[in-house]
Amino acid sequence: MVPSDAELLRLMLAGDEQAFTALYRRHKGLVYRFALLMSGQASVAEEVTQEVFLALLRNGRRYDPERGSLKAYLCGTARNQVLLLMEKERPYVQLVEESDEGDAVQIAQLISGDDPLGDCARNEANRLVRQAVLALPARYREVIVLCDFQEMSYAEAALTLDCPIGTVNSRLHRGHALLLKKLRAAVRLDSATPDAQGMRCFA
Amino acid sequence: MNCQNFEKLALDLARNSLLDATTRDQGLIHTEGCERCAARLAEERALLARVRAVVAEIAGEEPPARVDAALLAAFRAQTAATASSTVIPAFGRSRHWSSWKLAACAAGILILISVMAIFWKSTSSRMPRREEQAVAPAPVNTPGHPAAPPDGRDQMAAEQPKILPKRVHRRESADSPDEVEVVTRFFPLREGEDLTTLDSLQVVRVELPGSAFGEVGLPVDPETVNEPVKADVVLGQDGMARAIRFVR
User: Fold this and answer.
1) Is the ipTM of this complex over 0.90?
2) Domain map of chain B by residue range?
3) Chain B residues touching residue A180 (CB < 8 angstroms)
């Protein structure tokens, strides 16, 4: 029988290393990908993941299973960490990201696979979606990442963001409208000026 | 259903959210007769399909091994720290608490004294300085006790006494020559500091609660614990309290 998150957490707080490892393995991807989608940077996602689990080690006793899932609790912590880091780097925000390594990875992805043309189109579409998500204001981005990318229910997202379900609902609608608008614009812009990419909104 | 109502529904239809069957049917029927709303629904579905493609693309992305290692090290360090604190025997814990409490109280007194010293300095700069405040009061020898050094510095450097009442010096009060003050020796407030090496010192008369006796290891009378007691505090050039003696 697979132990529940609450049981693993209890064991972890009692000093059980296997419980900690199991809990970390179970949720590290979720936290990392949430931070990655929110920030668009692997380094930030790394830092956030580390901070989230360090916070769980320090303050794990604060988690109340009756209030919601551990997944929501961890994503809530991750969200606070991401916003904190974004706020810190706000004065240094780079409107056009220039990463040789990133470009190299993208090129490698574009030429890989059995169907290079199909892969190319898919990767390009995915890249546009991720960039459009990053360009959303944080309050819409976080709702879209939680509900669409992490497939959380509205109730879980509301718990994660510490806001009413109605707010999640309205932000998701507004976020989708903005995302579609940005995607339409990005498709036009992308075909005209390939360099104007990687913009992230800090509103 | 009109287009405005459909707009509110489009996302939930695209997401296949749990909807009332009637509402769902009405929405879908509306798209059959409204090209604009049909396109709107198709657009939402296409967006969600793209989102799912991104989810599939990043499904394998996880933090690098160095994060795993760092967290495991942090967990082990925390577990070791917790374990070491739980194996301390009962008397050890109580001693630890006692010394912590003592340190906190001592810090509180130091802050109080420093504030009073600053206050005294600011008032003394506006008023003519009284001589007895600027120099250390010279203890008067009492029968049966060794002579005290004239400037009081050697007393401060002396080791901390265990009992207060027997180790007193007498001096005449500067305020009224007829009144005799009983003073203790100076107790150093910073462990291991040699006060004789300091260039200049200043003595300030202050009033503290009776509990202050306990901070230097002297017995505290529970009945007078809240009553004010006079004390002479030795301040260094930096304004920090270095030693204290009690006056009665």
Assistant:
1) no
2) 3-58, 109-247
3) 43-44, 47
